[in-house]
């Protein structure tokens, strides 16, 4: 015999089972509501600015970071001497028209290479001292750079060279090197020194050593080319670039003046060709010069004789022949004349 309750369990679905289904849906909805509320940002309550208007109008003290970042130095017992700072500031880079940034970097490297501190990198010393070696427009350029934008010495050199050595200047110097020519009455030593100055002014010219030697050799006069070949033993091309450079350097140290024509003084009163038959060219040249001088010289002017006038009596005779000074009659005149003399 089945009871009512048991019939519900066997024949019909349980009421507890049916009641759990909506509960699951409600749980999902509650989870979704929690996630939705979590996505909504709750307003952050900030405190009101309690500064006065005077404080708000003051200039900010932030944003003054150094452009150059000095690496951390663990050593503390080092100090730059006053004489070193004076040496660094003795030749500041001021961005003049003929000032070379490459020369400034070379000069700065020579100074800083003599500074040695234990456990202090030399690059850090250069970064600390470089701002003291520039002034004027160069100092303004460095101050305009973004804060903490220069981290290494190589970065500083690259920015400095690119700022004050533009590509147009590089192109002009490369053209001067390529079109180099020995000037008139310029000795071999002078030409070689001028050519090296052009190479030194543009260290990043990109020309190989062979190109440099070929350009310089072709720029010489035929006389200097022959003398250079003689110094090389017959032909400079038979030498290696290193040996050819050594020969040029050795020849440039011998500072011989260029052979110049000697001008001989020719007298306009030279004897006729019959008196000097052994030098007919000199006689002809002397006659030509004499004829040219006679043609261009103005006619001689007559010089008017200057008559002497006595300062005592006004007569046409010198004062020392004046009769008025003789005797005792005109003693006062004689005294005046003697005093005048």
UniProtKB/TrEMBL annotation:
Nucleotidyltransferase is among the record's keywords: yes
Location of the Retrotransposon gag domain: 129-221
Any matching Pfam family: Retrotrans_gag
Any GO molecular function: RNA-directed DNA polymerase activity
Record's signal peptide: none
Comp. bias regions, Polar residues: 1-21, 265-277
Record keywords, A-Z: Nucleotidyltransferase, RNA-directed DNA polymerase, Transferase
Disordered: annotated segments: 1-26, 258-277
Cited InterPro entries: Retrotrans_gag_dom
Presence of the UniProt keyword Transmembrane in the record: no
PANTHER family per the UniProt record, alphabetical: CCHC-TYPE DOMAIN-CONTAINING PROTEIN (PTHR33223), ELEMENT PROTEIN, PUTATIVE-RELATED (PTHR33223:SF11)
Protein name, as recorded: Reverse transcriptase domain-containing protein
Native species: Tanacetum coccineum
Organism lineage: Eukaryota, Viridiplantae, Streptophyta, Embryophyta, Tracheophyta
